Amino acid sequence: MSLGDFPILAPKLILGLETRIINNIHFLSDEEVVYPVGSVVVVHNFQLKKQRFIKLSERGKNLTHLAVSPNKKLIAVVESTDKLPIVTLWCPVQFRKKRTILLPQDKEIYANRYVTLDFSFDSKYLMCVTGEPDWMMYCFRCDKGRLESSCKAINTNGVGTVHKMACNPNDQNQVIIVGESVLRSLGCQNFSWRLFGYNKQDSVIYTSCTWLSQDRAIVGSDKGRILIMETGELKAVFTATDMPIINMTPSDENFHQESPNVFRNRESETSQTSIESTESIKIIEGDSENYEIRCLTCFNRGFVFGFTNGVVHLYEKETAHKYIKRGVFIIPNRLIPREYDEEPEILTGVNTIAINPSQDRVLVSCRDMQLWYSRIFIHDATTGPEVTFREFGYPMHLGPVGSLAVCRWKPIVITAGERDRSLKIWNYETDEVELIRHFEDDIYSVALHPSGLYAAIGFSDKLRFMAITIDDIATVKEFNIRTCRMVSFSRLGHFFAAANGNVIEVYSSITFVQMYVLKGHSGKITGMSWSYDDRTLATCGTEGTVYGWKVQKAARINETILKSTQFTGVAINREGKNMFCVGTDGHLRELLNANIHRDVVIAGHGIRLDDVILSMLDTMLFVSGNDGVIYVVKLPFFEKAECVEYIMQNTRITKICLSWDDRFMISVAVDGTICFWKLLNIEDKTLMVDPNAAKFSEVLIARTVLEDKLEQINTLHLRMREFEAEHTYQMRQKDTLYQQQIKDIHTTYCAAIEDLKIKNEQMETDHIQEINNINQEIQKMKIDHEMYVQKLEDHYNEKLIMEYEKFHAYEAKMEKLLRASEERYEQLKKDKAASEEAITNDFMEQLREKDYTYEELLEHSEQEQKKHEVIKQQIEDDADREIYELKEAHEKELKEEQDLNVRVRGEAAAMKKKYLAAQKETDDLKHRVFCMENEHVKFKGIIQNLEKEIMDAKKEIEERDQTIEDKEKRLFQLKRKNQELEKFKFILDFKIKELKSQIEPKEKTIQEQVHQINDMVRELENLQKVILGLDLQLTELREKLGASNNEVKKEIAKNRRMKHALQAIRIDIHNASSVIQNVSLLQKTVKDMYHKYNADKDFEITQAEDTEAKNEFLRQREFLERTVATLHSQATKNANALSYDKVRLVEENASLLVETNSLRKHLQAESSQTKKLNALIGLSYISPKLAQRKVNMAAATNLEIHNKYKERLEENEKAIQMLKEENERLVNKIAEINQALKSPEIELCEEDQECA
């Protein structure tokens, strides 16, 4: 069956992080991050929310390291194997393998993993350090994948282990290696690595290192100490607990730079250069705090490192020798302590620190799968000394995802974390988290109502029916079911079934009444599945039973028991007749009427399968198992199931679910990874969905919450208006300030222009003077050149006549040689034809004789075959008789051997006791031999290392001798090149003189064009003045139009206010008409209306005067602002126009210069062409160069004719030689055929003798 018939699972998004890998996060760009998840390496663009994948071998279980080159063009994936480790280089753009780097097979290498690796600063080399027992450093070339050099990574006495390595940021030949009792600075010269600087073997564990600059490195230890190395020498030691400033200048008191003798004499005292001092940090035994300096990472503005659990320290570079502590970042501890945990696991230890290319964000990973980030250098006096990291990307579960559920009406899925006691609701279409809710109790199961508005959640104390609101999950009803590990809503949502121990209780999701109780399981219930009409429920358990229940009767209709397996998942079809179940034995079974209808093995016998699901139309079946594998099984399956594997996760998958339209699938695993899959090639396998049907997007929201939200909106609107008013005021103040600054800049700019004009005039006068001097020199050189050319012409004319005479002599000789060679060729042709005829006639006669002898031999062989068959029949009869006789004899011997066997068993028991005693002695001897062999291996290793060092020294001596010879050869070549260059220099000087003579006529045309350009500039300035006047008129008209528009708007607003007032009076009159019967109340209302609408005239007059004054002030202010704006725009236009004219003139000058250069070239070509034509016609003399060229052509044609005929003669001789060889081959072939015909005759004679 072709793969095109299977549905395709395309991974859309995978969430998680492989925390066991050191340095597991890297930036490709500011938006793209590389990190390992499950069985792949993910390149995640968090801005576009897209992922691309690099698939790993062996499901990613052999992955040990991940690295990205400094130029972001290579991703190094390091994997360990049973033999030798492998490094694969991937291209992050095309996502294909660029190179696989392997260790050489011819070397004795016992290590099967790399402990650390790093790229050189130019991304050309990859440095790798192998683990035990070799501890070797290898340098590979990335573009070719070959090994360039290698050396020992640990101390020469074989003590210590390696933890980290760092390459120099400016020199690819320097590295620093640190580890347990290892601190080595290595430099490479002529493919040989050597130690330099401080190499004292202290009993200190160094955990991290990096380079601050080309000659300065920083190293961290497990006791919280930081070492500063400069040019390989130890300069200072600091402690991480009290380090607000790192000052590395010799004059500073904090930098105790002392001589090596002082270090040796003051080991008992506490100083910053005493590495083994532990006085600064008191480490208590059993303390869970981690005092290692982890993940030292340097960038242009400083460096960061991890110290103690969940703490990252940041230092900013103030000068080349001074670093200041700028902040402390804290990783939040999401671990929830439990009573039954004896020692809580620490998950906040820093694993990796990465800085983005823009160097404004720091990204941190720890043993928790969540990524954390923070901005760099955000601290001030108000933020405080410590900053808490924020979640980067998607919020992840802490630990296993225990349960998963999807709904029908919405594209959402809910996941439950076992360790972090949280629920997360995801939208699998938009790849976003819609809601997160944390609880105080452990969560064991979760189910989502088809509407997506409700959920049934099993807690450690109760089962709760909860409502999903816009920002919360609120409890609606509680049920007394403790640690409910399995809960499921029916397809229509009116029932939900919950496992209470080994009993299933079915409740109504409307009245919350217990409807049915299903009893029968004796073990833990591991799977539930509802039929399409909710009448049938299928369940399975660890006791090896699968039940089919009639829900409305609470009766069992199907029962299948297999005690040999534990069932882990079950799925039922739409009609409720067929059930599919999986278990720990690796079998997929189809059950029909309580019988096993089909039984197939999916992954292999004994390989656990975890879950099984069916599509809505029963056309697709998906099975999970084998630690992270999802199998797509073809339906219907027969004796052998056809399936396709898809792998993204590498641990046990706890649950898989399909969306209601079968277009998406979600899988969750024990390690906390969540994978969203998109199903392809499912056109005829899913439900038909109406594309015009609207999706359900409603959510529940409490009335109090809604009121709070509305109040917040109103307050925010008010604050927005206040901010707008403040902003406008600030902008006005800035405008006035900027206008004053523009005036100042304009004055300075004008003064600078005047200075530049004066300088330009001075430079022009100097330039004219230089041109005049050059023209005079050119005239002198022209006269000298003409005299020299005349002499050369006379000399070369004499030579040309001599060469013509030689050419005629060579032509006569050539004709004679041609005639002789043609006569020879004809004679050879005739001889060849005669010899060929004679050979073919002889060969045909011999062939006829051999055919006659072959027919006679065939007849003889048929007669002999008949005789052989008769003899064969006789031999078979004799063999049957002998077999019968041997059978009887062997039966007698068998009886005798059985009796003997009984006797031998008794003797064997006695011998067994002796054997056990002897075996103990041999074990003791083997142990002694093993000890001796270990010592022998150690001594052998030491001998090999010494031999290698001797070989390396010899190689180095040979290489140095070779380099000396190469340098001497190079010097000789350079001397020869120098002589050639001097000759070439003389020729170039001559050409320069010719070119200078051609420049002079073009200078006059350039000056004429300059005068034309100046006239055009004057005309443009006049046009610019006219345009400016028109612009002023246009701006004045626009201002008048704006003022009239403002007056119209005021009148419209006044009219609107009057209408509103009239409407209010009408309403008040209407209200007063309702109390017309009550005179006193009517009087009161009329009086109120009078006071409301008829105020005091004096007050109105004063108020009107105030408003008029304000309006006049505003009008004048607007007019002044408008005039300032127009003047500002005119100034900018003038400046732009002037700059545009200057740019245009420069461009026109450039184009004119290009045209003049092209005309010069054209003129030169035309003059040379006319000279050639004149020389051919005879109107002028031939130049010496042309005459020399013609002589060379004539000599070349003579040599070509000579070589041509010489080659033809050689070809004829080769043809004659080949004919001779062919004749010899035919003679040998005839002799072989004669010999072959004789040999069968001899064999037949020998057979006749044997038969007789």
TrEMBL record:
<feature type="coiled-coil region">
    <location>
        <begin position="936"/>
        <end position="1054"/>
    </location>
</feature>
<dbReference type="InterPro" id="IPR052993">
    <property type="entry name" value="CFA-57"/>
</dbReference>
<feature type="coiled-coil region">
    <location>
        <begin position="753"/>
        <end position="907"/>
    </location>
</feature>
<keyword id="KW-0853">WD repeat</keyword>
<feature type="coiled-coil region">
    <location>
        <begin position="1202"/>
        <end position="1239"/>
    </location>
</feature>
<dbReference type="InterPro" id="IPR015943">
    <property type="entry name" value="WD40/YVTN_repeat-like_dom_sf"/>
</dbReference>
<protein>
    <recommendedName>
        <fullName>Cilia- and flagella-associated protein 57</fullName>
    </recommendedName>
</protein>
<dbReference type="InterPro" id="IPR001680">
    <property type="entry name" value="WD40_rpt"/>
</dbReference>
<feature type="repeat" description="WD">
    <location>
        <begin position="518"/>
        <end position="559"/>
    </location>
</feature>
<keyword id="KW-0175">Coiled coil</keyword>
<dbReference type="Pfam" id="PF00400">
    <property type="entry name" value="WD40"/>
</dbReference>
<dbReference type="InterPro" id="IPR036322">
    <property type="entry name" value="WD40_repeat_dom_sf"/>
</dbReference>
